[in-house]
Amino acid sequence: MAAIEAMNLSGTAMPLLYSGREAIENQVRENLMLFEEGRVYHRRSEIHATYGGQEQGGISTPAKYPYIFLFSGDSGEQYGYRDRWIDTHTFQYFGEGQRGDMQLLRGNLAVATHVEKGKEIHLFRKVDKGRYRYEGRFEYVEHDFVERETDIEGRSRTALVFTLRRVS
After folding, report:
1. How many CB atoms lie within 10 A of CB 146?
2. What pTM does this model have?
3. What's the pLDDT tens digit per position in 133-142?
4. What is 39-166's CATH number?
């Protein structure tokens, strides 16, 4: 076995031992505090500095951790994203892609296949510039392609809309 270190949110190094992907995922879940529901986090300094992943866009897939971070906010409506709560446990999330029809590729595919890939979905909603409230852990339920949405250039397109259910 080889030893590696990961950082928790308080900046403390946590030693992890691993012998394969499954062991890493189990140890990360057991040893690292992820997020407190309802708490506000700074995206860059408290989320990406710890876990990595893409710092721009709505879907972030850290390479070294079994997580997918979804970032949502009201400002997305100007780009054709209409994320919304269906009820207290169900969230509708528009996929990534600002121009043309959305496709089930890259981050969108990661969301749809997160269970098979052993990854957890964590949802954040924007409250202020760079600051996001943690809404909880979610799972993919289904997706639909919705016609007549508009892209960043105001052109009609087909959007990919995920239905997600809260699991925490």
Report:
1. 15
2. 0.79
3. 999 999 999 9
4. 2.30.280.10
